[in-house]
Amino acid sequence: MRALRRLGLALGLVVVQLALCTATDATPWREEDVTALQRQGLRVRDRMVGSSGEVEAIFFAAAPLEVARAVLWDHARFPEFMPHVQACRVVASGPDTADVEQQGGQGPFHFRLVSRRHRGPDRISWHRLSGDLRENAGEWRFERAPGGTVITYRCRLVPDVPAPQALVLYLQRQGLPAMVEAVRRRIEQQARAGVRR
To answer: Which of the four pLDDT bands, split at 50, 70 and 90, describes residue 197?
Structure first.
């Protein structure tokens, strides 16, 4: 009887996962929403998550989702276009994981991250393994939209030294416009060049 219940629960979870994966292929972004986001250029908000703050930026890139994901998965090339990233080295990688050593920031900071690609919803997440920050976790989320991709960036940083979280959020927000513009420009350049990985 227990085995049947477990099997039923497992099948139920599979059905839910399939429904979630299928649902993410739908386009929740209408053309007028994309136009409004393009006019705005960048939507930014921050919020407290537990005792740390998280910053979020939403923007549009006129490129296929696959190109956006490929650009943001190519860690070794981050210093070519990401402001404040001075060095980035992939220490080890698999099909959907990467152990990345990165130096940069306004410190400069040195840290090591594990990055993962996910499907359904389509995203790349990361979290800190070691380094100068006590916490560094976040994600890039990709959604198909008319004419391109809507990208959401979320990041939670906690420095090793005591600092007011409001100050940490303020500093993160200050760097967002330049970072977003650099990422958007790189994604759109790669799309025009026909790059897909």
So the answer is: low
Cβ atoms of residues 146 and 27 within 8 Å: yes
Q: How many CB atoms lie within 10 A of CB 125?
A: 16
Give residue-wise pLDDT tens across range 6-61.
333 333 333 233 333 333 445 588 999 989 888 988 999 988 877 778 999 999 99
- Beta partners for residue 99, in sequence order: 92, 114
Helices 165-192, 65-73: inter-axial angle, 10-degree rounding: 120
Phi first, then psi: what are they for 114, rounded to 5°? Answer: -110, 130
| pTM attached to this predicted model | 0.81
Q: Determine whether 153 is exposed, middle or buried from the number of CB atoms within 10 Å of its CB (0-12, 13-18, 19+).
A: buried
3-state SS record for the chain = CHHHHHHHHHHHHHHHHHHHHHHCCCCCCCHHHHHHHHHHCCEEEEEEECCEEEEEEEEEECCCHHHHHHHHHCHHHHHHHCCCEEEEEEEEECCCEEEEEEEECCCCEEEEEEEEEECCCCEEEEEEEEECEEEEEEEEEEEEECCEEEEEEEEEEEECCCCCHHHHHHHHHHHHHHHHHHHHHHHHHHHHCCCCC
CA distance 179 to 183: 6
